[in-house]
Amino acid sequence: MLKKILIANRGEIALRVIRACKELGIDTVAVHSEVDADSLHVKFADESVCIGPSPGNQSYLRVPSILAAAEITGANAIHPGYGFLAENDHFASVVQSSGLVWIGPQPDVIRRMGDKAEARRMMQAAGVPVIPGSEGVLASVDEAVGVAREMGFPVIVKAVAGGGGRGMRVARDAEELRAAVPTARAEAEKAFSNPDVYIEKYLARPRHIEVQLLGDKHGNVVHLGERDCSLQRRHQKLIEESPSPAVDAKLRQRLGETAIRGAQSVAYDSAGTMEFLLDEDGRFYFMEMNTRIQVEHPVTELVTGIDIVKEQIAAAAGEKLGFKQSALRFTGHAIEVRINAEDPGAGFRPSPGKVEFLHMPGGIGVRIDSHVYQGYEISPWYDSLIAKLLVHGRDRSEALARLERALAECLILGIRTTTEFTLDLVRTPMFQTGDVTTRSLESFLEEYDAAAEGV
Ligand code: MV4
To answer: How many of the other CB atoms lie within 10 Å of CB of 209?
Structure first.
């Protein structure tokens, strides 16, 4: 049914989708900006169309240009990748009304999950545990203080249009909350053109645990286990792994069943991820749902053997999922690190430029997802991801040793990268023991910066 897929994205994820299409015997169309003319996604695709100048809002975010490229090339489906238009419900619905297949969940599901207060309400109604907080959007500061006094401080103010950590404010008492609500509203209005906020009880040291889901148009939803993404810097994940050191088989089953229940309540019919916070007492709470393929999806592919992108494409074509929950086996341990063109010695400032020399690691249990080659010019216009380095081992200890070994094989010259920083981080007792929370990186970075300054 799907003969030709247009990939509305760039970089490693565009390559990832093209690879799945090749294995499925589906033709591919790359779209690209002017600066991306020499990119690998353009070279690997069967056809390509230049859709505009380098800034994203003049190319990869231009809906009419992308639809025109699909029309000209006769593509009959669009895969959005992650970022750019992947969670834009308007784009998804225009794709569908143009008679094209949208490779993602239904536009109204994207829209409802995009409203974080609405997503909370829906999941609570479906019996998914949510963090105690306000019933939807706050009508006033007094309401916020009332709700906060009832459940206790500290609380966190979040933008309904936020997600991914943008537009959040923590308040430890009523006075701070009275200041935080207007500030958060102003920030939300500026960033998202929507000032609406809600509050939740603030969990001090949670782990970020997310569950990979796959659904089809026949009402089936399965979970592919969890990923632990607790190590983040400013809401940018640095390391992801599966299984989580904090999740045993029993908790995995409860997380999985809960995530499936939530997804089925909205007739979820694609690849998606439900994010939870796990507190010190082993309780978990729904945080938000990502209605797209994620950067870290290969971690799950390594422990399940399932090609998530292929399943996502098949589901969009109306096929049934190729396997049942009971047939899934989780094997070994996988870890992903992101290698970025950034300078850890300068606050992780982007370090674009020409890659003068490149050697990527190999050997048993190593996977590299990257669009970068020797001589490639990393553009300042887009994200700084150079490569995702993944390792798979029989257990966490083998995966850790393999990760150190593989990181040490990496050699990227001509630009600053996060390779050595990541190796230092991987070698810490904190990461080696798996005893991490969403706050762990802050303290590591303080020490790291102090060491860099010779303090
Ligand atoms: C929280 C939280 C603690 N308590 N909500 C950050 C990303 C966005 N999706 C929500 N985030 C958080 N929400 C409550 N009620 C702590 C965070 C958070 C965080 C979450 C996951 C990974 C890294 C984080 C870093 C700082 C704060």
So the answer is: 25
Question: Considering only CA atoms, which residue is closest to atom 19 of ligand 1?
Answer: 438
> Any residues with CB less than 8 A from the CB of 28 and at least 6 apart, and which?
4, 5, 6, 7, 17, 18, 21, 22, 44, 45, 46, 47
Domain membership of residue 246 as a residue range: 207-452
In a shared domain, residues 11 and 150: no
Q: What CA–CA distance (Å, rounded) separates 323 from 210?
A: 21
Pocket test for ligand 1, best of 198, 199, 277, 436 (most atoms within 8 A of CB): 277
- Give yes or no for a contact between 293 and 81, defined as CB atoms under 8 angstroms apart: yes
Residues 144 and 178 in one domain: yes
pLDDT of residue 164: 67
20 pLDDT more than 90: yes
165 CA to centre of ligand 1 in angstroms: 6
Residue nearest to atom 23 of ligand 1 (CA): 438
**Peptide bond just before 64 cis, omega within 30 deg:** no
Per-residue model confidence as pLDDT tens digits over 96-145: 999 999 999 999 999 999 999 999 999 999 999 999 999 889 999 999 99
**Given the CA of residue 208, which atom of ligand 1 is nearest to it?**
21
One-character DSSP codes across 86-109: TT-HHHHHHHHHTTPEESSS-HHH
**Which amino acid is residue 340, in one-letter code?**
N
Query: What are phi and psi for residue 200, nearest 5 degrees?
Result: -135, 160
Mean pLDDT of 234-255: 96
Total residue length of the chain:
455
278 lines ligand 1 (CB under 6 A): no
36, 55 Cβ separation under 8 angstroms: no
Answer yes or no: is pLDDT of 454 > 90. Answer: no
**Looking at the structure, do residues 216 and 82 belong to the same domain, yes or no?**
no
Helix pair 249-265, 116-125: axis angle to 10 deg: 110
pLDDT, one tens digit per residue, over 260-281 is 999 999 999 999 999 999 999 9
Domain match, 432 and 342 both: yes
**Over 90: is that where the pLDDT of 166 sits?**
no
